[in-house]
Amino acid sequence: xxxxxxxxxxxxxxxSRLQAAFQSVLENMVPEHGxxxxxxxxxxxxxxxxxxxxxxxxxxKKIGLPPREVAQKIIDQLDISNWCETPEIAGPGxxxxxxxxxxxxxxxxxxxxxxxxxxxxxxAPKTYILDYSSPNVAKPMHVGHIRSTVIGDxxxxxxxxxxxxxxxxxxxGDWGTQFGMIIYGYKHFVDEERYxxxxxxxxxxxxxxxxxxxDYHYSQASLPDLSSQIFKLAxxxxxxxxxxxxxxxxxxxxxxxxxxxLNEKRKDTQNQLAKAEQLIQDVEQDESLxxxxxxxxxxxxxxxxxxxxxxxxxxxxxxxxxEFLPACRDDIQKIYQxxxxxxxHELGESFYQPWLGEVVExxxxxxxxxESDGALCVFLDAFDSPMIIQKRDGAFLYATTDLxxxxxxxxxxxxxxxxxxxxxxxHEHFAKLFAAADVWxxxxxxxxxxxxxxxxxxxxxxxKTRSGDTVGLEGLLDEAVQRARSVVDQNLEKSAxxxxxxxxRQQIAEVVGLGALKYADLSxxxxxxxxxxxxxxxxxxGNTAPYLLYPYARVNGIFAKGEIDSxxxxxxxxxLTLDRDQERRLGLLLLRFENALAESLVDYTPNTLANxxxxxxxxFGQFYEKCKVLEAENETARQTRLALCDLVRRTLKTGLxxxxxxxxxxx
RNA sequence: GUCCCGGUAGCUCAGCUGGAUAGAGCAGCUGACUUCUAAUCAGCAGGUCACAGGUUCGAAUCCUGUCCGGGAUGCCA
Length: 667
What we know:
This protein is of the alpha/beta class. The chain has helices at about 15-25, 35, 55-65, 65-75, 100-115, 145-160, 175-190, 190-195, 200-245, 250-285, 285-295, 300-310, 315-340, 355-365, 400-415, 425-440, 475-495, 500-520, 535, 545-560, 565-570, 580-590, 595-600, 605-625, 635-660, and strands at about 40, 50-55, 90, 95, 125-130, 165-170, 370, 375-380, 385-390, 415-425, 445-450, 455, 530. A four-stranded antiparallel sheet has the order 1-2-4-3, covered by helices on one side. Strands 6-5-10-11 form a four-stranded parallel sheet, sandwiched between helices. The longest helix has about 45 residues, at about 200-245. It is globular and about 85 Å long. The chain binds one RNA strand through helix 3, strand 8, strand 9, helix 15 and helix 16.
């Protein structure tokens, strides 16, 4: 498939215009001018102008001239006088650039009339495949799925918006042990009546029930081992303590460290033991449940067998799987619908089963994989351990499916870039996978692991419920909305003149709650772990969804009060004049939108866009405080401010939509 | 053991492809609602950017080492 040509639009990107101007000067001064163009950036301090160019210092070094002299040479040849003030040289050789205010005003009126807010399409559109969310079906989705889902969705939206061809694919886990579990559950414990009426609920119940029985037996089996481990660790700790008594200083430090580590480990193991005992106790407290558990003492192995039978093509299990899968998929679909997320494809692990053998054969026949300890391994430079693609018992693995997936995607879509939005713990797996893809012959494609950190609880540990279970995603969404609702109600109590009916309150709560949840995630640097807190994500100030949603509603309020029709207004606007500082600053911020999008794609970091929107909102706040809109000093000021308001509103709406967040007309 | 990620204000976090005096929000203190929505705005205070070296005209940012935290580590995904 050939990418469709995309009509070029006029770019509002100040930075790329400056770069173009500098390029024609630098071309004559230095052969490798690319890196120097990167040294143009928005000024950090308003006193230094609007933009600054920092290349004179390194350039001076390179060509052996004083930096300030180099700066002067550049300025002399720079052809920007019709849209910039005369550049100034400061300090060791910074070139400070200030845009002509009239020019900014002019750009803004163009932006006002452009439905795309001046964002031009990518000059060279690429094909991207985005692999994200990828939950195990038949297990309830939990808090761990939110990041992949939300980050991947946002990246897909941004890439599309700037004109790339984007294919999103939800690589569902639909072929794993969890199906062995519900098959076993169905065969032994199904409530036919319930299954007919509400299959999803019944399958969910079966999954949890079997999980419980398995945990029970597994815990029992692990008790002796855990106890003896604790004993051993205690012994070792005692030994260390004795050694420590007579140890010299340098050794003592090392010993103390080892001792601390041993104690830590013992504590961990004790916790494991306590948890196992709890699981056992839970079952034993219930007489009838205990009887069932005892009657199914071989359940753990039996579940593995059911899974193996399914994979081997056993007709009964296959038929059950065919029956269960649609129900399971519908179930997760409900969550996606609520989060407004959809995929072009949902090709799960099962989809690739028919080709795993072929892939393995190819690796074998081409000498890319060799046998080691009975397993088929791909040995890769730069890795100590190989990537195993077939187990000793002949079974295939995660890595095998991933390779087959790569082959399928290459053949079907021939992507330039494939992004895997998966948590950071799988980094090494992907490093190996990509290295394998490389030797396989796909070295021209960029494979990229877009890694992200863990969602933490207030205790600084992975977010869990009080009883230590993972937090279900559906409940998470409900609570966010419910808390947003109480914020809505609280605020409406304060202002008597605003009247909101029940339905609108609920709708605002839904948008704000889900928006807050997504925004909390997306405003964070994806690489770091982050602390989950309803209170923080729903705060009215700071880098939160409610704060960003507010100016949108405010601007709507202004237009409503002034009885101004937006589209008529946009067409009618003649010229803008940015007299006030706040107006000019806000205008500059608005012109940076396209650049913010580009920056968020450099390293696939939606938080770059989120931070920009936050800055824009803060800039609007200052403007709003100082500049009356409807009752401006004169008609031109009024027009200018209405235009700025309209641009802020649209930029926020568009920007938030690229984060997958909806807006409310008033709040 | 090896490898990967992190350590920035009391707390939660931006900034990290090197740039001028390190930024937000919360918490603390002070102010601003007869006003286009105060779900807001203005101000004060708060820092050895873990530590030590190095590269550089210039380092929170790059390199090396140390400490601390998390993760991965041959047949789970």
